[in-house]
Amino acid sequence: MATRSAKRVLDAAVEAARWAPSVHNTQPWMFSVAEDEISLRADTDRKLRVGDASGRELLISCGAALFTLRTVMRCEGFEPIVRILPDPDRPSLLATLRPGADIQADELTVALGGEIERRRTHRAGFADVPVPDELIERLVRAASSEGAHLTPVRSADAVDVIAALTRAAQGVQAQDRRFSLEVIRWARPPGSNRKDGVPAEGYPRQAPRTEPHFAQRDYAWRHDWGSQADQRGSVATGVVAVLTTPGDSRQEWIDAGQALQHVLLHASAYGVSAAFHTQVLEMEPLREFLRREVCSGEYPQMIMRLGVTFDDKTSVRRPLSEVLE
Known about the structure:
InterPro entries: Nitroreductase, Nitroreductase-like, Nitroreductase/BluB. This is Nitroreductase. It comes from Nonomuraea solani. Residues 8-37, 116-307 form the Nitroreductase domain. This protein has 325 residues and is α+β, with helices and mostly antiparallel strands. The mean pLDDT is 93. Helix 2 (56-75) packs across helix 7 (250-269) and helix 4 packs antiparallel against helix 7 (250-269). It has helices spanning 3-17, 56-75, 107-114, 133-144, 156-174, 177-185, 250-269, 284-293, 320-323, and strands at residues 29-34, 37-42, 78-84, 93-102, 149-152, 239-245, 273-276, 299-307. The strands form two sheets. The protein has a four-stranded antiparallel beta sheet, with helices on one face. A four-stranded antiparallel beta sheet has the order 5-6-8-7, sandwiched between helices. It folds into two domains: 3-119, NADH Oxidase (3-Layer(aba) Sandwich); 133-307, NADH Oxidase (3-Layer(aba) Sandwich).
């Protein structure tokens, strides 16, 4: 492959990977390019020391960036050659990628690539518009192709349990000053020029309650922040789904992140957004209860609600100069 072509592919992939989703928009990744290979590393300075002491959410975030790199390479006409956790002596090196054989990107891959910068996280209720069952089944298959399982929660009782666990976890974390200060660290005040964290316009000041109620993060802790957008009609819960893996290793956390981004981009291509509720997964006793009682023994890696929203949102990402070595 010509050097000029390789440079274009690698530059496009890293530029797009900045737009992957991450917990609190921490963007906990660094990239480096040497010859025709991209290295993806964890930026451990951006790890949540309280809410994510194990680094699980950090690796899920980086896994989402990895799927983005793979997708762009395919869109550029090359099958990516990927090595995950290639060096046990360098635990922060999560993956390497280089362009492999020439391919013709299919229609779905091109559609996924087109959603990378358009996809947005939602932090309120959804419009009363159903998500087609056929789309949900496609999302299930998308997660499965990355080694994870996406399970739509069809039982009303199970949805009530997950909502109650979310409220309980949020209630406990709200009383813990360490959790609250860590969340507020990644909350951007109105008018902030920061290129990471959750912007004040990214969540409603007073979110209407869904039924059952799924507690939201308190990004405005002790501040009068949040969007004034009229969301009185956005009170639907949407489709509750849990992303799980058979085990709970670092490899499976990265797999979960790749599955998550595959699901999110596919959903976005059909006008469906996701709201995340990870509080319960940050408290190991509650996560273990969820694993045993709701997830059939598999390890829950992400809880989300899927639905349709008509709110326009903005998002920010760090410039390439800050994430590329």
